[in-house]
Design a protein that fits this description.
Rossmann fold, single chain, 284 residues, 12 helices, DNA polymerase, domain 1, 8-stranded mixed β-sheet, alpha/beta
Length: 284
């Protein structure tokens, strides 16, 4: 099994305990990788677990995976609880947190650099497309105005701009959604996912399964459309008279609709509320 988002190692442990012969885990966050590797040391000693630091978007190019095929590939997108809870990492909107949000050293700019450096149109697109914010243009304009007086440095600066545009009744839900939009842009998450999916599909064994857990509508849409296209026998334009595409399906979608957390799971883990799981199986 290939765990593309190792995080705290929870999924890897579950896979190993449920009978997976071997698990290879990757994560772009060196802190997460160190924590998970320590947790999984007994399995590593038994030859059942190995890991490497990498962005899942580049996983298929890792030298350690060269020539390997996997019965299962897992992507648990978004950020881990450890990253959210570590205020110094800057993923939170708690007061005084630095505007960082980088998942790993491969992210070229932090959140402060993005907010202080991007033009108004780029910021507008970011908030509208990644944050589903209809007032994205006004928020971008407010950020440009404020940074002309004082650069954005902490979570308070972005929260203040959001409140100025959405009003004093804006709250945690709005902050979480718009901070998430900035994080997605900082880490190039949607383009990375688009690039990763076909590459990871191609290292599945015949009959292998890919499972993706998404937390953002943009992520889920990319996964849904990819699985749908791979499952179609023909992907030529509808009015094209002769098929010129691959002419066969690459596999089948296992989840007719996205699987969501039960009420009990959400009660035990509120962060599962927005999770949407989809699964696809390659042709045997």
């Amino acid at each position: 099994m290939l765990d593309c988002t190792l995080g705290g190692g929870g999924h890897a442990v579950a896979l190993l305990e449920s009978g997976a012969e071997r698990v290879f885990g990757i994560d772009r966050d060196p802190e997460a990788l160190a924590t998970a590797t320590a947790r999984l040391a007994p399995y590593a000693d038994a030859g059942r677990f190995a890991s490497a630091q990498a962005n899942y978007a580049d996983a298929a190019e890792l030298p350690a995976l060269e020539g390997l095929r996997f019965d299962g590939v897992l992507l648990d997108l978004g950020i881990s609880s450890h990253q959210v809870d570590a205020a110094a990492r800057g993923f939170t909107f708690r007061p005084g947190a630095p505007l960082d949000m980088r998942m790993g050293a491969d992210a070229t700019n932090d959140a402060a650099s993005l907010l202080n450096g991007e033009d108004e149109q780029t910021l507008t697109t970011l908030f509208r497309e990644y944050g589903d914010e209809p007032k994205g243009g006004r928020l971008a304009r407010e950020i440009v105005r404020r940074r002309g007086v004082r650069p954005f440095e902490t979570s308070d600066d972005l929260v203040g701009a959001i409140r100025a545009v959405l009003g004093p009744r804006s709250g945690a839900g709005d902050f979480a959604r718009l901070f998430q939009a900035v994080r997605i842009a900082v880490n190039d998450e949607l383009p990375g996912l688009t690039r990763a999916l076909p590459a990871l599909r191609d290292i599945l064994s015949p009959g292998g399964v890919m499972v993706v857990i998404a937390y953002h509508s943009g992520e889920d849409r990319i996964v849904k459309h990819a699985f749908r296209e791979w499952s179609a026998e023909c992907v030529c334009p509808p009015k094209q008279p002769v098929c010129t595409c691959r002419g066969r399906s690459l596999g089948r979608t296992l989840t007719r609709r996205a699987v969501t957390a039960s009420a009990l799971e959400i009660e035990q883990n509120p962060r599962a509320r927005s999770a949407r799981l989809r699964a696809w199986q390659s042709a045997a």
